[in-house]
Amino acid sequence: MDSEFPGTIYKPEGSVSSLSAANLYALMKKNVDALNIIQLSLTLSDAHGNLPTLGTPATFYFNFRDFDSDYDPYNPESIAFLRDQGINFADHKRRGINSRFLKSGLGTGRAWVTFHGLYDFGFLIKILTRHNHVQELFGDPGLRFEAHHPLLCASRWARSLSVERAGGKSHHAGSDSLLTMQLFTRLLLNSNYASACAMLRQFNSLLYGLTC
What we know:
Layout: E1 2-4, H1 21-34, E2 39-43, E3 59-63, H2 76-84, H3 89-95, H4 118-128, H5 154-160, H6 173-189, H7 193-203
Antiparallel strand pairs: 1-2, 2-3
Helix pairs in contact: 1-4, 5-6
């Protein structure tokens, strides 16, 4: 899964890496509550990372009309960057769908793979629960673990694993969700079965910035 959104408008007083999990959660929630999603993409596979044989990768992405750059709050640098990447906000406003048409059944019986997916999950839960704010991602946002990993670039990671972007441009949700699945699959293929299972157990139910 990958999403595009209007950046962040609320910033921490210090560095993000110095925030506790609870404070990072509160910052994410404050931003997602105030902002509207731009794109969401899902790339589907089986439990082994195999994509369906449909002739093209099973990646589905949605352009939403929820975000209106004329009225809605946004981070100007983020919107300028997305425009440079080719996202046409006027076209989204004219032809995009309303996020309320996504059904909450998407969230059941699935395993999710994301790359730094804290905000992706925040926006997904917001639109699937059809609330104007984020429902609690967990029962208690004051989580046990507060470790933070260094920020990684997906494209640089792909190069290190010799994974070629299958299509589209970076910072488009469809292309990025497919690349995330490609990276995940490559990690599985580079490991034997026992190692892959151990890796999946190690990262099961962890969300970057909150639980790892």
